[in-house]
Design a protein that fits this description.
The chain folds into 2 domains: 126 residues, no CATH class; 230 residues, no CATH class. It has 6 helices and 28 strands. The longest helix is centred in the first third of the chain and has 77 residues. Helix 1 packs antiparallel against helix 2. It is an alpha/beta fold. It has a 6-stranded parallel beta barrel. The protein is elongated, with a radius of gyration of 34 Å. 25% of the residues lie in helices and 39% in strands.
């Protein structure tokens, strides 16, 4: 009996030890797991901060480079710089004032951004700008840089006779197709980049009093289709280059004046540069723009009703920038009693319509637009567009819109040469 009691006591002692050992093991495992969890948490937070710093830096870098491109375009449009030195000085002054937007809301993390821009002259008329962006989140920093090359030679290509001759030295220039039907008359050269079969259609007594230039590499007999007494009083030639039309670079800083609406039979006069939501001149309405030097107007849309009239008074040139639609209704007269080089209509929209018997005197620059001229519509000046269709008895009479001493109100950096704004490197530094 005594031996059994001793065995029982020994068993209880062993069990107690096992329990203690088990608790020790469990506790150790718990501590280890907690340590791993804490470590992983800190690693996750560190990785999160590391990635946040990268993406904020990337966003700031892309924003800065895009702003540089927009500044370049705006300076080009101004036409105030005759040499590389003055242009780059103005460019750098504008770049130094770029403010990086607050990107913290996008990443739910407080981030500090530093931006530094330096420039290196590679050769006359060419510079490389290095944009260095550093983003710091907590104790972690990521740095990225981009290198942008800008060439002044291409910026000045508008003054190159080849470019001016091709785009503004003829009656019509299109990057794509041309279609002329039923007694259409064009006085002046017509130029297109298209090499499509039947890309230029002349049907039913169409008369082209000038040369036709088709896109580089095109076959004249395939591209130009002549039917039913269509006449070309000139030659059909192949361009040695294709011209890429620059996108519209809109002016900024114009005072916002809401909508400009002129009711039926109403007459109104305006002056000075302005930004409008909509310009609408209703039937038989008359708008006079008083010029005191070059004047710039911008609007989202432009509409002329039947028999509407736009007149210019004073001296200088009017440049109208339109974001979207342009519609010119029947019998409208746009600068009909003025000079073609006094009016530039510049559109980023996809369609422009000149309805029956409308008259437009000036230059129309719409690189993305399909232009449609209805019966008896007339343009004195020139048309630059994506494509054009001219219907019965409509006419384009070339008039030189390039005036000495007047800078062109469109980007001047397009041409056959090298890229003007070239991002040559983006990466982490």
């Amino acid at each position: 009996m005594l031996n059994r009691l001793n065995v029982l006591k020994a068993s209880r002692g062993s069990a107690f030890i096992l329990v203690l050992l088990s608790l020790t093991v469990v506790f150790s495992l718990g501590v280890s797991l907690m340590s791993v969890t804490v470590t992983n948490y800190h690693m996750d937070r560190t990785e999160h901060d590391y990635q946040t710093a990268y993406y904020v830096a990337e966003g700031a870098l892309r924003y800065h480079v895009e702003q540089m491109r927009l500044i370049m375009e705006e300076l080009c449009v101004s036409g105030n710089y005759d040499d590389a030195l003055s242009f780059f000085d103005a460019f750098m002054a504008r770049v130094s004032s770029i403010s990086t937007p607050d990107l913290n809301d996008n990443f739910n993390k407080q981030a500090h951004i530093d931006v530094d821009v330096t420039d290196t002259r590679v050769e006359d008329g060419k510079k490389i700008f290095t944009v260095h962006v550093t983003c710091t989140v907590g104790s972690l920093s990521r740095s990225l840089k981009s290198m942008v090359e800008i060439s002044w030679d291409a910026l000045d290509s508008m003054h190159n006779s080849t470019y001016k001759t091709i785009v503004f030295g003829g009656a019509i220039f299109t990057s794509e197709t041309m279609k002329f039907y039923n007694n259409v008359v064009v006085n002046g050269n017509i130029v297109t980049n298209t090499i499509k079969e039947d890309g230029v259609e002349l049907e039913n007594n169409v008369v082209i009093n000038g040369n036709i230039y088709i896109g580089f590499g095109g076959e004249p007999d395939e591209v130009v289709q002549r039917k039913n007494n269509a006449v070309v009083n000139g030659q059909i030639k192949v361009n040695s280059i294709n011209i890429e039309l620059p996108a519209v670079a809109f002016p900024s800083g114009l005072p916002d004046r809401g909508d400009l609406r002129i009711d039926n039979n109403e007459t109104k006069s305006i002056s000075g540069g302005s930004r409008y939501n909509t310009i609408e001149i209703k039937n038989k309405g008359i708008l006079t723009v008083r010029l005191d030097g070059d004047t710039v107007i911008r609007a989202n849309s432009l509409y002329f009703g039947n028999d509407a009239i736009l007149r210019l008074s004073g001296s200088g040139r009017l440049s109208i920038y339109i974001d979207d639609t342009i519609h010119i209704d029947n019998n409208s007269l746009i600068n009909s009693d003025g000079q073609a080089n006094d009016l530039f209509l510049i559109s980023a929209g996809s369609k422009i319509t000149l309805d029956n018997n409308s008259v437009y005197k000036g230059s129309l620059y719409a690189p993305n637009a399909d232009v449609q001229m209805e019966n008896n519509a007339v343009v004195h000046g020139n048309v630059v567009a994506k494509s054009i269709v001219m219907y019965q008895n409509s006419q384009v009479f070339f008039s030189n819109v390039i005036k000495n001493g007047y800078p062109m109100p469109i980007p001047v950096y397009a041409g056959s040469g090298e890229d003007v704004f070239n991002v040559i490197y983006v990466g982490e530094s």
